[in-house]
Amino acid sequence: MKLCLVLLALVGCVCAFSVPTQKVKIADKDFLEKQKFLFEMVYRVEDPLMFEEWIKMGQKLIVDKAQYKEFDFYMEKFWESYKLGALLPKGEFFGSLVKTHHKQAYGLFNFFYYANDWETFVHNVAWARIHVNEGMFVYALTLAVIHKPEFEGLILPQIYEIFPQYFFNSKFVYEAEKFDYEVFSKLIMYEKEYKDILYKDVSEFSDNFYFYTKDWKTWQWYKMMGLDQEWYVEDKYFLRENLETFNKDPKYVDIMKGLKKFYMPVDYTRDIDFFNAESKLSYFTEDLGWNAYWYYLNMDYAFFLNGKEFGLDKDRRGEWWIYNVQQILARYYQERLANGYGDIPEFFWYKQIEYGYDPQLIYYNGVGYSYRKNYYDYQTYGNFEMFNQIQNFFSRVYKVLETGFYKTADGVVIDLRKPEAIKFIGNYLQGNVDTYDKYFFNYFYMLSHMYFADVDFYDFEVFPNVFLNFETMMRDPFFYTFYKKFTDVFYQFKYYLKPYTQKDLVYEGIKIKDVSVSKLVTYYDIVDFDVTTLLNDKMTFVDGEFVWDKALLARQARLNHKPFDFEFTIDSDKVQKGVVRVFLGPKFDEYGRVIPLVYNSKNFVQIDSFVYPFVAGSNTIKRSSKEFSWTAEDRTTYTELYKYVMLATEGKYDFPLDISEPHSAFPDRLVLPKGWESGMPMQFYFFVSPYTADYEQFSNFDYTYSSGVGSGTRYVDSKPFGYPFDRQIDEYTFFVPNGYFKDVKIFFVDTFAKYFEKKYAQFGTFDYSYFEF
C-alpha cells in the first residue's frame, strides 16, 4: 500500500538519499485484464475451472514451435508425457523436490516462460489449469510470473492463500471445506439464545477453570475468550497489524461492503502422540510468513534456472542462498534461546533423530502427511545408494576445502582460498545449475530431500511429506538440524580466509559515539489469514463476471513486536557517504554464560542496512523499525486484491502497481525473538563502512513495483553478505571506532494475561481490544 513497502524486499535498499523519487505507476486496462486472469486461474485451484472465458481458451496446448522463443528438451518431453498419459495425475501429491515431478514441472514452466506473446501464454495457462496436476501448475505459474520480464508488476496471491492446506492443520482444513453458508446462517439463528445462556453460565466458573485453560499453549487464545474451533461471523474487518492503513482508505471501505466474512480460530501443531520439547516452538516454525519467505527465496533463485539466462548470477545467487540459510538458522537459534533451549541439535549420519514430528497437515486429495516418530533412524530406510551419494557429497566438499582448490572435469582450477570463491561454494550447496562441475555436484540437494522423505530415484506417486516442498519443510525441526550441515561447510570455507585486520575494518573519520534504542517489546497478536480458496460453495456469476461475496478467514495468534527506534550519534570529519549496517545477536547462552564473539558472530542476524550522507561534525540519525530495508508488514489479501482489480476494471479505482507488498520480503514482526517477561538480554551491533558501490542501485528496474530479481542492482553495495561478520573474528582487531555494540533487553508482554487475572465480561465473543496494553 505504501511506496516504501516495495523497497523492503531489496536487501540494503534505502530511501535516504540514493533512491530517486518515482511516481507510482497506475495500471492500464491491458494490465488489469492480465492481473484478473492470473487471480482467476488460481482461485480454488483444486476444483474444476469455472470461468467460461478461460475454459474456451484452455482447450488445447500451443505446441507450434514458432510461438516460442525456444522449444527445448523439457518441453518436448512434457508434451510426449501428456500424449502418453504419463503426466502426474490431477489430485496426486506434487513435490517440487521429487525428481520425476521436477522434470515435468520444468517443461510446463518453459511452456509458460518461452511463450512469444500473451495470447499463447493464456492458452497454455488455461489448458494447464484444466489438465495438469494442481501443485505442478501453481509451481510453474509462480515461477513464470516472477521471472518472465514482460510480467513485471503482475502478482499472484500469497502461496498460503492459494494452498492453505500447506500451512494449517487438518482439523481446520476439514472444517473449512465443510463450511456451508446456508446451513451456517440457519444454525446461528437457532442457537443464538442457547449460546447466550451458555456463555453466561461458563463465565461464572471458578478460577480453576481459567487456570486449566492456561495450561494450554498461550496461542490458544480462543479458549480464553470462550470461543471454540468453529465458524463465527466477522462483521467488522480483517485483523492485521496495519489495519488502520486499510480502514482509513474510503475505497477499501467501499470494496468491502456486502462481503460476508467468517472466521475460525486455528491452533498450531500440538504433538500429543509424539510429544517432545520442540513442539513448544511451533508458533515460530509454523508461522506462515516464516515459511513463505523460504518458499519465495527458492522461487526467486530456483536451483534449476540458468544464472546467465535469468540474470541470477548477477545477484550472486549462490552466496545469497547460503547466506540466507545461515541467517535463518541464526534467527531460529535466537528463538530457541528465548524459550530456554540451546544449540540446534547436530545431525549425524548414523545416529537417531531424537525429536519426531507430526505436521498434522492434509493434502487437498485427503491424504495426510507422513510423520516421524521420536528417535527415528534414517539409515534403516535401506536406500543405501542414495544415502551414500548424499554422504559422499559432503565428504567431497570438505576434502576440496582442505585442499584449497578444485579442479573440474574439464580442467578449470578454482582457488578456494579467495573470498570471491564463496559463489562456487554457495552454488554447490544449493545444487543449482551454475555449479561448475555438474557431474559431481548437481542434484545432490534434491536427492537429500527425497531420501529424508523416503522417495526413491524414480518414484512417481509419492506420499505427502513436508521435506518435498519449500513452503512446508521449515515446519519440521529436523530442517534446522540437517541444514546445519550446509552452514558447517559455509563456516569451514570462511575458516580458511584471513580475519579482517583493523585496517580493513576502520573507516577513517567516522566514529559512532552512541546509539540509543527504544524499549523492545514483543507480544502475541491475532491476525486473519485469507483462506477463501477452501470455500466449498457455489460460485456466483452476474453477466459473466464472478461475484466474490464471501471470505473465509483463519484467525491465528502469532509473534509480533511493538515498533522501535534507533537514534544514532555519529561523528564525521568530512562530508561523505557511508553504509550503516545493523545486527542483532544474543549475549548469553541457555546457561547464562557470555558467548565469546569468536563463536557468537554466526548468531547475529542483519536486520537493517542503509546509506547515509554524513555531514562534517556530529550527525544525529533517527530510524524506525518501520523503515527497515528488507521487511514488510501484513500483505494485501487475495480477496482484497481481486476486489481492487474489479473496481479498477470498472473505472472506479486507480490500481497502483505497488499495491501489494513484495513477495520476497521478510516478515517485519519476526525481526525480534520472543524475549522474556523479565527482559531477555540481547545485543545490537552497528557498523558503518564506506559507500563504494560500483553500480547505481535500481538503475535497470523500476523499484516502485519490482523486486529486481536478476537485475544485479538489488543490493546497496558489493560487500560480502553479513559483512563484517562474514569471516572469523580476531577480537584484537575487530573493535574499531566505526563499530558499536549496544546491550539491550527484549520484554515479552503476555497480552492474554488479563483473561486470567479476571473473568472476561464478554465470554463467548471475540475481544477486539485484546491488543491494548
3D architecture notes:
The protein has three domains: 128 residues, Hemocyanin, N-terminal domain (Up-down Bundle), CATH 1.20.1370; 369 residues, Immunoglobulin-like, CATH 2.60.40; 220 residues, Di-copper center containing domain from catechol oxidase (di-copper center containing domain from catechol oxidase, Orthogonal Bundle), CATH 1.10.1280.10. It is of the alpha+beta class. An eight-stranded mixed sheet has the order 1-2-9-6-17-16-11-12. A three-stranded antiparallel sheet has the order 5-10-13, with no helix packed on it. Strand 14, helix 27 and strand 15 form a beta-alpha-beta unit. The N terminus is likely disordered.
Topology at a glance:
Layout (H helix, E strand, L loop, with lengths): L2 H5 L21 H13 L10 H6 L15 H11 L15 H15 L4 H14 L2 H14 L11 H4 L7 H9 L2 H22 L4 H8 L6 H4 L7 E3 L8 H5 L2 H7 L3 E6 L16 H4 L2 H13 L6 H4 L6 H22 L45 H20 L1 E3 L5 E3 L6 H9 L7 H4 L2 H9 L17 H4 L3 H19 L6 H4 L4 E8 L2 E11 L9 E3 L2 E3 L2 E12 L3 E8 L3 E11 L10 H4 L4 E10 L2 E8 L6 E2 L5 H12 L16 E2 L12 E11 L40 H4 L4 E10 L5 H4 L16
Parallel strand pairs: 2-9, 6-17, 14-15
Antiparallel strand pairs: 1-2, 3-4, 5-10, 6-9, 7-8, 10-13, 11-12, 11-16, 16-17
Helix pairs in contact: 2-27, 4-5, 5-6, 5-7, 18-20, 18-24, 19-22, 19-24, 20-24
Task: Describe the structure concisely for a colleague.
The chain is an alpha+beta fold. It is built from 29 helices and 17 strands.
Salient structural properties:
single chain; 773 residues; alpha+beta; Hemocyanin, N-terminal domain; Immunoglobulin-like; di-copper center containing domain from catechol oxidase; eight-stranded mixed β-sheet; three-stranded antiparallel β-sheet; 29 helices; 17 strands; 35% helix; globular; disordered N terminus; secreted; signal; Ig_E-set
